[in-house]
Amino acid sequence: MMIDTPDSKELKPLPPELDRWNWGAFLLNWIWGIGNGTFIALLALIPFVGFVMMFVLGAKGSRWAWRNGRWDSIEHFKRVQRAWAIWGVIIWIGFVVLFAGIFGGVSFLLKNSAAYQQAIAKLQANPEVAAALGAPISAGTPSGSISTSNGSGQATLDFSVNGAKAAGKVHVEAIEQNNVWTLNALTLAVEGRDDVIDLLQENRAENSSWREPRNRQARRFGRAILAPT
């Protein structure tokens, strides 16, 4: 069974002046194909094949559209294909602007979050970090996720840091309770070092030393109650 493709049809030949790159077919591929009766362009919907098909359509789109369409004249064909190209550029610019806006908005929210700001404050105040990276220390744009609901939430962030001596990666985990954010994990991995700096180690040590006397007091109190009189 022979598959009928645009090139297999013996239709009107393409005028030499139209044998050029078709930007509308390249930018809008399958949409352009439906509008120009060139249904082989639907192959652009197939993953991986679609990327190659974009360039095939750009190179052969004018020939296929000329053979498959009803055109009043060469000028009519040029005018319609020019319109497809203009709309292709507009749509692609719109996608780029939309993507940049979404990415910029998310980055802005992450960078202005309480979890990120607390992490930066801890980072800049830590003498071990200053010794490892070298001052001044600059932080990059964070990536990750933040979710909040009714005064509770959680955040997981990662961002790069650079100092005068070295660079590194920071990992942050935080939770929100009653609209107050608390860091649960804050570590720095310095490039060229195998160890990881735990910036919350002092806090955990302080909490442990604070709980231990209270636990001893409770045990002594319990023994006093149970002791025979």
Architecture overview:
This protein is an alpha+beta fold. It is built from 6 helices and 6 strands. The longest helix is centred in the middle third of the chain and has 38 residues, at 74-111. It starts with 22 loop residues before the first helix and ends with a helix.
Tally of DSSP β-strands: 6
Listing every helix as H and every strand as E from the N terminus to the C terminus, the arrangement reads HHHHHEEEEEEH
User: How many helices in DSSP terms?
Assistant: 6
Helix content: 40-55%
Which terms summarize this structure?
Nuclear Transport Factor 2, Chain: A, single chain, 51% helix, 2 domains, 6-stranded antiparallel beta sheet
Question: What's the quick description here?
Answer:
This protein is 51% helix and 20% strand.
Secondary-structure blueprint of this entry?
Blueprint: H1 23-35, H2 49-68, H3 74-111, H4 114-125, H5 127-133, E1 138-139, E2 143-149, E3 152-162, E4 167-177, E5 180-190, E6 196-198, H6 201-226
Helix pairs in contact: 1-2, 1-3
